[in-house]
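Lab meeting, item 3. Inverse folding demo.
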């Protein structure tokens, strides 16, 4: 057995024994690259995810709603920073990752390429998008890479607030006037299927899952998490008196799961290829913010350089 194969087997045994892989540990290059891919895309998703909601900060219906939405959007920025830092522990360069996003080369979650035409969309995002993110991120608290797993523990605490504030918005609307309930139902219709797509392609169509499960990067498959999310969320919709927009949704007593209709994978792949309703708008906004922030980066670099010079003079 070659040394490389020996090392890989030792690594697999280490992960199988439920040890956490730390930055300085030996790891297969493909493990490193898979994590840089996933963690950087996760970070991009957090940063781009601020945009659909920012659209409503100035138009929130009350000061309380505005404060909650502001706090959530600020949290997402922090999640992005944790995750870029986690990717940097694997040797990824921050500016390379940012450039990959701005150039359109890097992926971010498909879900953020949908518009938010009404206030109810903000409720549906918190309830469904953050609800789906929680299902995925609670699983990732047990991922084999230490820095990613620890970032997830911190992020999940904040996600719970995000989901609660979204569900409360939906409850207020569903229990409000007929027009408000209609607005909530329309938002559920818009966000239900794209939220199911967040979990990624089916296990049969996922090129990365098998290896990610073997290395315990993923602890549950895309389909398992999607099913868990559906089983938990359908009763919440029923409590609101809203109808999930899936005529094939049916409780399966034998399997204790909801059977559900076919997901429109054509839409999914079209959105991740850049043809969603808001892909261009999101990238234009990110590039504009980046350009407008150029002076801040220059000032921070100039300050850091000055500090370095002062330290050298003091040491001389
Ligand atoms: N949007 C965009 N691309 C997606 C996607 C989605 N919803 N689901 C899958 N893909 C991409 C994958 O990135 C992969 O492409 P790549 O190889 O070029 O990177 C391809 O489709 C095949 O998918 P796989 O299932 O084989 O890929 P993974 O094993 O990486 O699984 C994943 C996909 C489940 C999304 C996994 O990457 C993951 O768990 N990522 C971390 C969680 C995450 O990124 N969540 C995004 C939302 S964050 C969020 O919602 C913030 C909240 O605060 C609002």
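The presenter then showed the designed sequence:
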């Amino acid at each position: 057995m070659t040394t490389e194969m020996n090392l890989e087997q030792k690594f697999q045994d280490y992960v199988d024994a439920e040890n956490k892989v730390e930055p300085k540990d030996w790891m297969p290059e493909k493990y490193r690259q898979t994590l840089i891919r996933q963690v950087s895309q996760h970070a991009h998703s957090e940063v781009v995810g601020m945009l659909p909601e920012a659209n409503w900060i100035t138009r929130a219906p009350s000061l309380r709603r505005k404060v909650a939405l502001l706090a959530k959007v600020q949290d997402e920025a922090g999640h992005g920073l944790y995750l870029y830092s986690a990717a940097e522990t694997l040797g990824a360069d921050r500016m390379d990752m940012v450039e990959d996003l701005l150039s359109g080369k890097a992926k971010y979650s498909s879900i953020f390429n949908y518009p938010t035409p009404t206030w109810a969309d903000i409720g549906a995002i918190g309830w469904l998008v953050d609800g789906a993110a929680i299902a995925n991120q609670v699983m990732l608290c047990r991922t084999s890479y230490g820095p990613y797993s620890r970032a997830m523990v911190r992020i999940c605490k904040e996600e719970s607030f995000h989901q609660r504030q979204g569900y409360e918005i939906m409850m207020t609307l569903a229990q409000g006037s007929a027009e408000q309930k209609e607005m909530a139902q329309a938002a559920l219709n818009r966000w239900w299927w794209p939220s199911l797509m967040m979990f990624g392609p089916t296990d049969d169509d996922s090129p990365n899952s098998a290896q990610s499960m073997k290395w315990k990067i993923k602890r549950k498959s895309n389909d398992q998490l999607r099913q868990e999310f559906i089983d938990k969320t359908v009763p919440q919709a029923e409590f609101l008196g809203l109808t999930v927009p899936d005529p094939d949704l049916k409780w399966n007593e034998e399997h204790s799961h909801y059977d559900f209709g076919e997901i429109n994978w054509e839409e999914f792949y079209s959105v991740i290829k850049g043809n969603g309703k808001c892909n261009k708008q999101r990238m234009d906004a990110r590039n504009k913010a980046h350009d407008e922030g150029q002076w801040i980066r220059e000032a921070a670099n100039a300050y850091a350089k000055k500090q370095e010079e002062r330290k050298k003079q003091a040491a001389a």
